């Protein structure tokens, strides 16, 4: 039985075509979320070719899940990330997901069910938006930030906890001649501290899985792991974790 999982995020839309009998991803892809959601998803499905004719069920999740009327069902991001992470890492007890405009910490039971969660969608300081702003100020692509931060030769504090004030602080640091590498590391450390503070009210425990597109940045993975005091487990393609969970839950 083949299903389609769709994760419509504020920045990117992701799809996964899943073979439930073989427990295998047949196809996955993502692209920037367009103004017309259906056109964005249709463009991704076109890339899957003949596989689309085998899809029996579909499930949508994410920021724009209610905007795609063609889905057979919808599920929350919390539920989908929990489902996918438990399948990929059966021992996982905590999930950290950082998206373009929000961040989530989810605790799981031994059976992989959602125990509790906290979502931050009010402040951009612990989200991908912070990294986008940083990349813009450092005049590099967001995909280059992790490598840049890994070359830092000293730890510097970033005192602002608000993206607007942090932007001014970064401009000030550059004006003083601070290396971009050290600023990039400071931003990663700032996000790590923010995520760790977000975890505090929860009864979290390791193993911890880190999902979302920003989890592709190894330096941020290192910084959050250091703040938590535990190694983080990252899926093979952390960008599609929510879509994978939706595909599994489509049945």
Describe what you observe in this structure.
α6 packs across α7. The protein has 251 residues and is of the alpha/beta class. A 5-stranded mixed β-sheet has the order 3-2-1-4-5. The model has no long low-confidence stretch (mean pLDDT 96). Helix content is 36%, strand content 23%. It has helices spanning 37-48, 77-88, 128-137, 145-149, 163-175, 180-199, 218-228, 241-248; strands at residues 2-8, 12-19, 24-32, 55-61, 73-74, 94-98, 103-108, 114-120, 208-211, 232-233. The chain has 8 helices and 10 strands. The chain folds into 2 domains: 1-89 and 236-251, ATPase, nucleotide binding domain (Nucleotidyltransferase, domain 5); 93-234, 2-Layer Sandwich (Nucleotidyltransferase, domain 5). 44% of the residues are buried.
Give a short synopsis of this structure.
The protein is of the alpha/beta class and 251 residues long. The chain has eight helices and ten strands. It folds into two domains: 1-89 and 236-251, Nucleotidyltransferase, domain 5, CATH 3.30.420; 93-234, Nucleotidyltransferase, domain 5.
Mean pLDDT across residues: 96
Instruction: Please write the CATH class name of the largest domain.
Output: Alpha Beta
The CATH architecture of the largest domain would be 2-Layer Sandwich
In terms of DSSP E residues, the strand content is 15-25%
Strand order of the largest sheet: 3-2-1-4-5
H/E series, N to C?
EEEHEEHEEEHHHHEHEH
